[in-house]
Model the fold of this input.
Amino acid sequence: MGYAPTNLLFNSFNALIGDPIATDPIFDAENPVEAEAYLENVDADAADGIFVKASNSATVDAKVTTETTSAASAFKDASGTGVGAVLSMNKLLSGATAEVRGYIAQADGGTKTIETGDYVIAEDGTVYKRTGARVPDADIANLTFATGWEVQGGGLAAINDLDAGRAVHVTARDDSVVDADNEMVVATTVSNDGGLSIITGAIETLFEDYAYTTFSGFQRLLPGQQVKAGSNMPAAQQGKRFMYIGEETDGPVDLALQDFSDNALWQEIKVDDIESLIPSGINLSVTKSDATAVGALLSVNDLRASTVATLSGADVDVADGAILVSAVENAYMDALNSGSVTADGGSVFKGGSKVIAVNVNIATNNITSSADATVLDAGLTAGNANDTNEQPFEVTLGGRTNTQEMPSPLAPITISPDDGTVTVRSVNSAQLYADLDTTTIAEGGGGTNAAVGASIAFNSAGVDSQNILFNLADTFVGTVVGTPNPSQGIALIKRSKVQAADGVSVDADNVTQIEADITNAAMATGVSLTDKTSSVSVGAIISMNRTASLTSAQIVDSDSVTTTRGGVEVLAEDVSNIGSSITATSFTVATGNGGATSVSVAATFARNEVTSNALAQVVGTDVSAAGNIDVKAMRDARIDATGLSASMAIAAGANGTETSFSGGGAVAFNSVRGQARAQASSGTLSTSGNITVDAQSTSQITATVLSVAASVTFGTGTANAVAIGAVYVDNLLGYDQSAPDLSAETVFDSSESVTRVQNGDYVPWCGRRCCNGPHLSLHRHGGPG
Done:
């Protein structure tokens, strides 16, 4: 959705390599679904309000299910193969734009074509109108306003002049959702039972053969006859069969009035599938029975959304009310991949069978979103003529109600701007919930039995999409091949003059969240009474979750911001978090009369990265307020990661060598980077209240990583059991996950004696009684010299 159609070949290629837009430039495919509302070069006068509103809602709700079943049954020599595959790609490009526009700013520079009648604001703030001929590819920064230009005495009002009694609102909102559910089931069953199924079928038919139902009226009952309870009996008995175990009745009895709970006369018949009584993993085939099941699920989900609200090139006057510029973006993705592969074959009586199950589950999920609310090159005046706050207009800025059972949707935001206020507000939410479930089972007998399951997941919010090879490089090496495209909330007043009776607020809120849950379970069993058995199971997970975000609230390079009674607030708040849970389990059983080998491996590799920045600043602007002046930046960045690998191998046999090996490994890299910065500079701040410049930053990593490995071997001959478990965890706050380049830095050797250390110098330190060695670490001095 939001893209021009392309052919199957290129779409399949994009999905296979994991990059949803790899071939889009070839076709110029971007064609977003969006809402646009704008005023351009207008003179508008309203007794009540002027509203420029754009609202967009877009949803992709996709479900893909495939089920592949291969069942082979014969007296002997049957084999079976089942292959299933899912290739899924969902893309959504959407947005909303509300603007007051219609000019070119010399300060922005660049090259543009100027048409006759266009307005240009010069570096000194003078407004010019082009009266001469068209100027193609003009160098805007170096324009000279000699001939062909006319000075506009009305200033900004010549471009856009908006006068309202109660309100001027420029608002944009976008709600975008991708809800993708992919399910794959592959099952292969092979049976060479030598006629056993015929015998059991006959027995089942005998048990199922009932003489009457409870609707059969009056009947004479003989011992052993069966009656099936119909809908005229109690609900708990309906559909069940009961055998008469009493004496032959003297005459016909009403079957509808029988008490089947009387154990002296009736016995419930429960057995209807004799083969189901055979334990799982025991195959009674009388000959070699090869079974192969292979499944591959590849899913790509991409959501790109943006919201823009801009009030620019305008003179705006509200006599008794509020001026509001608001952009709200709600980007949400819920992605589920479920893959199940089962191979059932082999024989407990014959060896040489191959039972193989292979399951590959790969998911790539990506969100980029932004909300920009801007006042640019404008003059704003918000009055409160009667000095009372009547709040005549209630505004719903965005959000989606919990109609689709979303774990944590962005709640609708409704405000009533106070009279005499100017509000510039940005709210951005990027939320990604991803589940990846992989189950692989091989149930066999004598011979080779193997179950291999691989789960690979790449989840990103605020990073441009890239192919699977680059994602793997970023995951294993810690490189940054992907281009950061931060999830951002921007609230900005620039090159403007603002006068408000009761307050000015520049507020940016940004939430970036990934919740990922990945499970991989692999099981291989082999049971043989006559031959050697080998069973192998592998469950492996590779996972990368990363977020990049930027939240900025600024008043910059503006003539002045003035309030008569209220205060001025510039607030940036960024919340970024990753919740990751990955669990890999592997279980293997091998029993054989001629020897048994059991190998079980479970491994996880996870990388979680959060990069976030919050910036609040007033720069190059004179601010005069009757109330408080607050410049605040707040940042909260967290990672909560859990990783578990558990493997168990059991080998049992006689007359041979029994060996079991179990390996469990878990590797985790977690890093949080970024800062909160509050700044006021290059201007004058004046107030009768308080001036507060406040930066608050919270960074936290909570990591739990476990690895469990167990091996058990039983045998009458040689028995070997080996179990290895390993864990490596790297948690970094304020550091990249790669070695820093210190070639240009001052780094002291542990043997040096120094009298002074400067800010930024690196000093070796050891927490033990040592001078060098593996326990030595470098620490950067951050205090004064």
Helices lie at 8-17, 24-27, 196-208, 468-477.
